[in-house]
Request: fold
Amino acid sequence: MIFAGLGFAQLAAIFGIAGAAVVGLYVLRLRRRTVAIPFSPLWQRILKDKDATTLFSRLKRLLSLLLQLALLALLVFALGDPRAAATLVKGRTLVVLVDASASMQATDVSPNRLEVAKNEVKAMIRGLGGADRMLIAQMDAMVTPLGPMSGDTSELERALDQVKATDARADFPRALRFATDTLRNVELGEIVVVSDGNLGPALDASGPVHLGDDKLSFVSVGTGKRNVGITQFSVRRYPLDKSRYEVMLEVTNTGPEQQDIELSLLGDGNVVDLTKLRLMPGERLPRFYPNLSGASRTLEAKLGNVDGTHDNLPADDHAYALLPERRRAKVLVVSEGNTYLEAALLLDEYLEVTQVTPVDYVNKHGGGSGFDVVVFDRVTPATPPRAHALYLDPRGPGSPVKVEAELTSPGFDKIDRKHPIVRFTALDDVNVARGHKLVPDVAAGDKVVGSFGGTSPILVAGSRGAYKFVALGFDVRDSDLPLRVAWPLFLLNTVNFFTDEDARYISSFRTGDVWRVPVSTQATEATLALPGGATERVPVHEGRAVYLGERAGFYELTAGDTASTPEQPAPISGANKTAFAANLLDAEESTIAPVPELVVDGKTAGKVEGFHVGVRREIWIYLLLAAVLLTALEWATYHRRITV
Reply:
């Protein structure tokens, strides 16, 4: 027997001091008040009777003293937390990984898989031995320890109550590495995985996870397989008609049975399309909706069974998307006259175009302040504008890039097709009579979007200070570019690139990823309104708000200190607000068939053993129970006049 709490010397000192105090209280005698009485024979008779019972009274007082000393001894002994040495050596150290991924929201078991998993862990907590220690961690896109390593059942149950399901996939390798690091240099370490088993291989960028000497146990949760989910969903506006848009989505039947479903597409809460589909087992069915109109804010896709029932996983039956804002951009055109340029800009009703001559630009619009974009047509001001700028055939020292020798018949031999200003354009066969070579500033981060002969850039994009620029190294009137569809597309793409509409064009993030959302201010923090109305403060790094998203739905980001909790997020409600959507869209997570066994590092996880509900090996608990019983005994004997 050893003491896990206070040492023997400390316990002896406490008992000695407290015991002396108890004995002192018992040896104290009450000072009786002297009272004069008129007749003494009666009192002499009473005192005679008292002398006959003095020995019995002393015995009763001694019994009461012994009961109090015994009670004190039990309490002091409990402070020492006495335990058998063998019990301490055999205590286990457990890390319990509770799967909180999207598939754990499946309702094939009541009420859902996560609640059943938590009940399994709660049974383990209540069956811990006196020397056992446990740490509970939530496993989703991250691994989150919910409390310290502890043997306190109440503390562990409070930690377990914090486990909440997310709309993301579980990062199993990261969770295993956390568990193995926690159990490093620990004897009798054990990793317990509570999950439906849809975790994928225990492999990441660092290679396979090795368990070492740690024991691996697995608690399988779930029984059902029936599920149909939305596994792809995206939307974009048409560049030349932003009142219209197109939607692409994919529906997957991950279950073993044929499913008849009803697919609804909603725009701003109103039904845009309703389709009934039949999916065979394992079938992936893409759907494309071209040339849609009527929605200006939100798009949603919903799944439901034709017979009115629901499949086993509701988390993937709903997908969200946000259309980019149809905001009017103010464009200032500085030109002596260019019909091709004017006509192309008129194609977009969301452009507010103002045309001025070079002289009026200097006299009335110096610096381009108040405009989103300035287009310089064969004009290059000496001072850079205070706005984003498109230079068509720039010249002179005011050009953002150096202009060198004239090129004869240049063309786009090499194009950076990933750059947003050339998206949906075909520039390979554009004929140009003459142009000039542009020299980008590599140190400033300029990018060559198009070049002639691989060595002569003729289309360059970059930034100077807080403003972006695009420079085209030839006069469009010296080419057949204005006669092609690529010309208005190039102009509109460039305006979108300047106004950051391209960054919000496909406005759907994937849950489980770290999101980096552009913000329009220099704030170091932002407020993020989550689906459901809650808000969180998120950091802003290099002009982007950084957040690990684990919930599907609509979000609204407010840069700076202005909080926002809208009932429904608006696409863009101000210069410092950005709305976006997030979705699960994961076919593997939608495959909810439970896995009966778990294999990691070549080892098959065993069953959970060694938990006996209701049995605890802490002796101090029984000492406290004995103290309570002894107190009750002393109370009963006192009131029956046995110990007084």
